[in-house]
Design a protein that fits this description.
The chain is an alpha/beta fold. It is built from four helices and seven strands.
Length: 159
């Protein structure tokens, strides 16, 4: 997705290595990678914040969907891809276990409001082990959560 820097408020959390954009025209929040946040930081001053509560942006009870970029790798590398062949102009890597553990803990703490989890990428099926770990970790959750995946369907396995 393309953003007009004049229409967004951008926030960067250095210790967590991610950024948040608020698009005032669309009235939506977007979580961006640290490399995207650094690029925007060079073009526009970002507010640095230490916690969501100090920032005052988040009412966790309103968050019903979690979207995870499982990898910046893609098996097709289409030239027309909005994510620059799936890698978002970032280093090609899978999501780290430490990040998954934080998301798992957050989902467990906020299970009453979470309705769906979407695996995204690059091509998320290239991060099969990470998806398996994430889903198994939430198996005992006493809540029905819908799992979805945005995929090119080229690499499906029985798993």
């Amino acid at each position: 997705m393309r953003f007009n820097l004049e229409d967004i408020d951008a926030y960067y959390r250095e210790n967590e290595k991610f950024g948040i954009l608020f698009d005032r025209k669309r009235r939506k929040f977007y979580k961006i990678s640290d490399c995207e946040a650094r690029k925007i930081k060079e073009e526009k001053n970002l507010r640095i914040f230490d916690s969501e509560s100090r920032l005052g942006l988040f009412d966790k009870s309103l968050i019903s969907r979690v979207e995870l970029i499982m990898t910046t790798s893609c098996n097709l590398e289409c030239k027309y891809c909005f994510a620059n062949e799936g890698n978002y102009n970032c280093k090609i890597q899978n999501i780290k276990k430490e990040v998954l553990d934080k998301v798992i803990e957050w989902v467990q703490d906020n299970r009453n409001s979470i309705q769906e989890i979407i695996f995204f990428g690059g091509e998320p099926t290239l991060a099969e082990d990470e998806i398996d770990y994430f889903c198994r970790s939430l198996n005992g959750l006493e809540k029905d959560i819908s799992y979805k995946m945005v995929t090119n369907l080229y690499r499906l396995t029985p798993r």
